[in-house]
Specification:
Elements lengths: L7 H13 L1 H24 L18 H13 L4 E5 L5 H12 L5 E4 L6 H7 L15 E4 L10 H11 L3 E5 L12 H14 L4 E5 L18 E5 L13 E5 L1 H11 L15 H31 L3 E3 L11 E4 L3 H13 L21 E4 L12 E5 L5 E5 L4 H20 L1
Parallel strand pairs: 2-3, 2-4, 4-5, 5-6
Antiparallel strand pairs: 1-7, 6-7, 8-9, 9-12, 10-11, 11-12
């Protein structure tokens, strides 16, 4: 069966890749089962009923569905409380609301994982000159550099926390557009232990984008105070059409809620309109879908390693997020890869991705995402800035079979374009 005219060499390499990653795929299925059972328990503990699936209008007072959804995610994330809303427009928005909710003039925000993701830099005031950034409010951003190999410099992290006594210790779990490894709960716990020891009053905040349900252990259970993420990534399960969450300690979540709405109203208002059903369904499917995306990433790593490319993580390594980085070496391979991913989509498969300027990014960016939800990166997608080392960041896959096909088509497109 070869509906897509994939070259025999790619098909043969794919069979070898499946053999290589068999044991890792089995490990992922164990994580899927654990987190899926936990999510069902979350629904039952929150008392979810059919009437919760109906949205509210106006001010949204006493929206029982909204409150139950908060309880579902709080349980799933091991949080005291959660702020789950369809009107978080992106992960960056959820993170920004959290930062402005908790930080005050003259506070110090210390990033211990190097430079934050591109789109957050303008909100902090590191790049651009946008009114309303943290910098505008005299909130000082400081940073601990990574080691030369991209790993965390724990001794320097401890030294800087001692020196700065920051209001916030900020952790970015995913690699962003960098080559450093993403963080598992083990690395996150080590940062938390250091911070608690030398500056117990500092708030430990985590950008958890792409990391939800990747492991059995959630960051809030190993020392993180508060975290945030997007519903068009892992926790929306490929069904949530928009939205995001902030979860963690109850008092901190309340501060963030006052920033999202108004001081005094916080979580108590906010119409859910007709989004409740999709958000509940997204939560229900999220652990399984995240596992399917992980399987797709593992397969991609194995296949492209067989084909002679450098990949990170390796197919047999533990993962802190769903992102797979593949070093493609030149812009031609990068553009071909994204074209191949796009050609495996159910939506907009005929579109040819091209590099272009994007708001919030310093370099031209190429993105492949034939998705049911615009910009959804839990669906199979790939993106990269058009700059050295011409690496592609691939993520997603609503089910492993379609994800595997997209990866094979990406390899096939590179091969075909080289021949032409």
């Amino acid at each position: 069966m070869n509906f897509f005219d994939i070259d025999k060499s790619i098909l043969d390499a794919s069979q070898k890749a499946m053999e290589l990653c068999k044991s890792k795929l089995s490990e992922i299925e164990d994580i899927q089962e654990y987190n899926q059972q936990k999510m069902i328990k979350a629904f039952q503990t929150a008392g979810v009923r059919e009437s919760h699936l109906v949205g509210s209008t106006g001010y949204g007072y006493d929206d029982a569905g909204r409150e139950a959804l908060d309880r579902v995610y709080a349980y799933a994330f091991d949080a005291e409380d959660a702020l789950v809303r369809h009107n978080f427009v992106s992960g960056t928005h959820a993170l920004t609301v959290a930062l402005f909710g908790m930080l005050r003039p003259n506070d110090v925000m210390l990033s211990v994982t190097g430079m934050p993701y591109d789109t957050l830099r303008s909100a902090i005031g590191i790049e651009g000159n946008y009114p309303g950034s943290l910098k505008d409010f005299n909130i000082e951003f400081k940073m601990v550099d990574l080691k030369a190999d991209g790993t965390l410099d724990y001794s320097n992290i401890e030294k800087r926390i001692v020196e700065e006594k920051p209001k916030m210790v900020y952790i970015q779990r995913s690699r962003g557009y960098s080559l450093r490894p993403s963080l598992t709960y083990i690395e996150i716990k080590k940062i938390c232990d250091i911070s608690r020891k030398v500056s117990p009053a500092s708030i430990i905040m985590l950008d958890n984008c792409y990391g939800e349900f990747v492991e059995k252990v959630e960051p809030l259970s190993v020392g993180v105070d508060i975290m945030a993420g997007s519903f068009i990534k892992n926790p929306g399960g490929g069904i949530a059409p928009t939205g995001g969450y902030i979860a963690g300690k109850k008092d901190l979540v309340e501060m963030c809620a006052y920033r999202l709405t108004t001081p005094g109203t916080g979580k108590e208002i906010g119409a859910t309109l007709n989004t409740n059903r999709e958000l509940f369904m997204g939560a229900y499917h999220a652990p399984h879908v995240t596992g399917e995306a992980l399987k797709t990433a593992v397969f991609a790593s194995a296949l492209f390693e067989i084909l002679g490319y450098e990949t990170t993580p390796k197919y047999n390594e533990n993962r802190g997020d769903i992102i797979q980085l593949i070093m493609l070496g030149n812009p031609e391979n990068l553009i071909s890869f994204c074209g191949g991913i796009q050609s495996g989509s159910a939506v907009d498969s005929f579109v040819q991705p091209v590099p272009s300027d994007m708001p919030g990014y310093e370099s031209q960016v190429i993105m492949a995402a034939g998705a049911f939800t615009l910009g959804s990166s839990i669906e199979l997608s790939a993106d990269a800035p058009l700059r050295e080392p011409y690496a592609v960041w691939m993520q997603g896959g609503l089910n492993f079979h379609s994800g595997k096909l997209g990866v094979m088509l990406a390899a096939n497109k590179i091969l075909k374009d080289k021949k032409n």
